[in-house]
Automatic annotation (TrEMBL):
PROSITE patterns reported for this sequence: WD_REPEATS_1, WD_REPEATS_2, WD_REPEATS_REGION
Protein's UniProt name: Coronin
Keyword Secreted: no
Coiled-coil boundaries: 432-459
InterPro entries, A to Z: Coronin, DUF1899, WD40/YVTN_repeat-like_dom_sf, WD40_repeat_CS, WD40_repeat_dom_sf, WD40_rpt
Phylogenetic classification of the source organism: Eukaryota, Metazoa, Cnidaria, Anthozoa, Hexacorallia
Family: Belongs to the WD repeat coronin family.
Organism, as annotated: Porites lobata
A Pfam family matched in the record: WD40_4
Length: 463
């Protein structure tokens, strides 16, 4: 009987860890707080790591060229009165980051282009407070609307903040117990949550009402959720009654949440963090304290989730975060890049791991890199609050000219509540900036063509 191997572009994805000299923040003391948090966040410009600190919470921000051992005098971002529990970069402004803390507040920070250097940053652009009465453990930026931020606390309350006014515009109070995790859908009209009552909920964000719900994993330990809306799925990780780790896939297209599949993974007791890549439809699972990162591919037909392989290491992860796809290196077919926090006492550090697909051709691989989410919002905060929805604006990852610049600069919109610290640009200034960027690209292309013509002329003369 012949054996058939399931066709997949990603069957041979493999992970490669960076050499020690190309790791980050060696010698830093990573936060030892027991909350279920990844303790780090990354974007194409900066890496943020929550650190242990006395007398208040702090986190570290590093440029991508700040490799190796950390300078003991390197600046920190420290304005919280208690431990920082989560950080998240603004998807539409690579210099803006939000942080939340045990002190019940959320703060917005603007990072200089050249990083912090040896300067501590203690004055936030904006402090969001007055809604949460207990520690805030998760924050998420809206996926398509500018200046909209979600925060979840131990109250248990989910707050939706409008940064242009500095106020909470929606308060969601439909959970009877601790909220374990939250995730937005593609256009930011819905969120999915998991709760200590073992239920999975899909919630209309603006109304604060539950649209669908189902009983999730039966175990008492925390479970997490990710929206996979381009397939019509929710993906969850949790525990069975016998404390075995599980994953499950749920159908969101019907009136009620329907479980499509549930599989046991292993007997470990670490909560699995989920990263879903909508471009490749791949799921990456990493547990705090594990030394393995598992990756799967989601498909439309049964059994809906296929295990691909594991990335195995000798060191366990304290936390993990993933680079937005626009920051991955398409020249080496890098379909994902993970930053793994490793806690080794006084020698904590962060290790980048590159997940690549081997191909013989050096040309751009269109099947691996479809158009992906860019860094420009589809809606303003007011438009979203008025009830409008829009899918993310997409960009091409195809290299353009010398230097393979992936995206043009986008004009960032000012935040009303942040005052003069984020002034709005005029339409004329925006047009001039776009024109300058276009002229630079064209000049680079002309220079490259002239070099190729000169090389061809020299070869012709030699012949």
């Amino acid at each position: 009987m012949p054996l058939f191997v399931r066709a997949s572009h990603f069957r041979h994805v493999f992970g490669t860890a960076a050499k020690k000299e190309n790791c980050y923040a060696e010698g830093v003391r990573i936060s030892k707080n027991s909350v279920e948090s990844p303790y780090c966040a990354v974007n194409p410009k900066f890496l943020a790591i929550i650190v242990a600190s006395a007398g208040g919470g702090a986190f570290l921000v590093l440029r991508h060229d700040e490799l190796g051992r950390l300078d003991p005098e390197h600046g920190r971002v420290g304005g919280h009165k208690q431990d920082v529990l989560d950080v998240a970069w603004n998807p539409f402004d690579d210099n803006m980051i939000a942080s939340c803390s045990e002190d019940t507040t959320v703060k917005i920070w603007q990072i200089p282009d050249d990083g912090l250097g040896k300067t501590n940053l203690t004055e936030p652009l904006l402090t969001l407070e007055g809604v949460h009465q207990r520690k805030v453990h998760q924050i998420l930026w809206h996926p398509t609307a500018s200046n909209i931020l979600l925060s979840a606390s131990y109250d248990p309350v989910i707050a939706i903040w409008n940064l242009e006014t500095g106020e909470a515009v929606v308060e969601i109070d439909c959970h009877p117990d601790l909220i374990y995790s939250v995730d937005w859908n593609t256009n930011g009209s819905l969120i999915a949550t998991t709760c200590k009552d073992k239920k999975i909920r899909v919630i209309d964000v603006r109304k604060g009402t539950v649209v669908k719900e189902a009983s999730g994993h039966e175990g008492a330990k925390p479970q997490r959720v990710a929206f996979c809306e381009n397939l019509g799925y929710l993906f969850t990780c949790g525990f069975s009654k016998m404390s075995a780790r599980q994953y499950a896939v749920w159908d969101t297209k019907k009136e009620t949440l329907e479980q499509l599949t549930m599989e046991e993974i292993d007997q470990s007791n670490a909560t699995l963090f989920i990263h879903y890549d909508p471009d490749t439809k791949m799921i990456y699972l990493a547990g705090k304290g594990d030394s393995i990162i598992r990756y799967y591919e989601l498909v439309a037909e049964s059994p809906h989730c296929h295990w691909l392989t594991n990335y195995s290491a000798t060191t366990a992860q304290r936390g993990v975060c993933y680079m937005p796809k626009r920051g991955c290196n398409v020249n080496i077919n890098e379909v994902a890049k993970c930053f793994k926090l490793i806690a080794k006492g006084a020698s904590d550090y962060c290790e980048p791991i590159s997940f690549t697909v081997p191909r013989k051709s050096e040309l751009f691989q269109e099947d691996l890199f479809p158009d992906t989410k860019g860094d420009e919002p589809s809606l303003t905060a007011d438009e979203w609050l008025e009830g409008k929805d829009a899918d993310p604006k997409l960009i091409s990852l195809r290299p353009v000219g010398p230097g393979a610049a992936k995206t043009a600069k986008k004009v960032k919109k000012g935040l009303g509540a942040l005052g003069k610290k984020a002034p709005k640009k005029t339409a004329q200034a925006a047009d001039e900036e776009d024109l300058e960027e276009l002229v630079k690209k064209l000049k680079l292309q002309v220079d490259e063509q002239e070099k190729r013509i000169k090389a061809l002329e020299e070869k012709t003369q030699n012949l």
